């Protein structure tokens, strides 16, 4: 399967769906699910959250040109912001033929058990370490799908914290969650192990909960963008922009927002917990003072080498992923075999988007490349309806002034023009009818 399709963006939606069906091996019913307006039935939605009254739709776009660890991939992205899908595809196109290389840690999540009122901290710590194998066999001994699949409790970390309310011992359970995001699984482990730890340490447990700083589940990806494609000056300017982000948290926040634009979009398309990804990514970025999640340098050939590193807790099972029909089709399009595979794709898309945003900012500016979609959004915001939207957007792009105030004026002008055209057409047709009648009389 090849994902490098030129001009995908120019095709009508039906044609794009046909290509997807042929290349990603989707069934007729998958296509129906994607194209259907209410794929998520109210009955299903009602099983997902409380007090359901409806569902909300988002566009799903396909990022093309991705090649990850030598394999071509289509990447479904669900997002309301224009330019993100185009940016990802463009960066992936420029990264070919080599594409992206990605790797990931085992899917180890951290569960935290907070213990207070421990009288002898040193003894408590020693006892936990000494009795770890016993704790492990208790935790993994119960009937558990996770353990059968090779997951379960794998290790332990102890951290002593000096807090406003005294010394606390924080026990980290390192749990391999296999192909799950893992929050429910980890929380269950924490709740089950806490009473044993209380008994062992004489302490009292307070919180028993997953940490979203999934620092043991790191994903890494890298790609090289060639000097011949970018030009030396653009590479230097991207390195300047990266240096700025490294030195300034105000800039780093926006830099990382660009990364998360893409990451969240894939997380949402697959119904994964994107809040968990956000929390984890930003906490990781802030571990040693808030920093960019990506890094860039010039390699020995003068090309731009980019990389990304972040924690990603994604799942193929559990949560809403299995329940949402569109998420199931999205996973089929992604053609991934494990949560690690999915996390690697997600990281590559994050790097791609960040690179594309930097390139655009140091060259034509972030709005220039995707003026048409931006203008369409602004036209819609300014009150344009149906056929007016395209006409207003066209005017704004031609004038190079994509502003809300100009769009409001343009809506009025376009409406006036449309009305004038309609009146002219009406007069013409009345004239023709009169002429026709007169000719028949004669
Ligand atoms: P889950 O409990 O729905 O599913 C995981 C379970 O699926 C495993 O325990 C296992 O029994 C089973 N399973 C079957 N096949 C598996 C496989 N191949 N690999 C792994 N497990 C397999 O889901 P979860 O992933 O434990 O929890 C995710 C949900 O928890 C998400 O909806 C998330 O939003 C929510 N959540 C998040 C937080 C947080 O991030 N702080 C807190 C609470 C809940």
Can you put this structure into words, describing what you see?
The protein has 3 domains: 8-105 and 217-363, 3-hydroxy-3-methylglutaryl-coenzyme A Reductase, Chain A, domain 2, CATH 3.90.770; 108-210, Alpha-Beta Plaits (2-Layer Sandwich); 369-438. 52% of the residues lie in helices and 19% in strands. The chain has 17 helices and 10 strands. The protein has a 4-stranded antiparallel sheet. Strands 5-6-4-7 form a 4-stranded antiparallel sheet. Strands 1-2 form a two-stranded antiparallel ribbon. The protein is elongated and about 115 Å long. Bound molecules: nicotinamide-adenine-dinucleotide (NAD). The site of nicotinamide-adenine-dinucleotide has 21 residues, from helix 7 and helix 8.
Short description:
By secondary structure, the chain is of the alpha+beta class. The chain folds into three domains: about 240 residues, 3-hydroxy-3-methylglutaryl-coenzyme A Reductase, Chain A, domain 2 (Alpha-Beta Complex), CATH 3.90.770.10; about 100 residues, Alpha-Beta Plaits, CATH 3.30.70.420; about 70 residues.
Keywords:
442 residues, alpha+beta, 3-hydroxy-3-methylglutaryl-coenzyme A Reductase, Chain A, domain 2, Alpha-Beta Plaits, 4-stranded antiparallel β-sheet, 17 helices, 19% strand, binds nicotinamide-adenine-dinucleotide
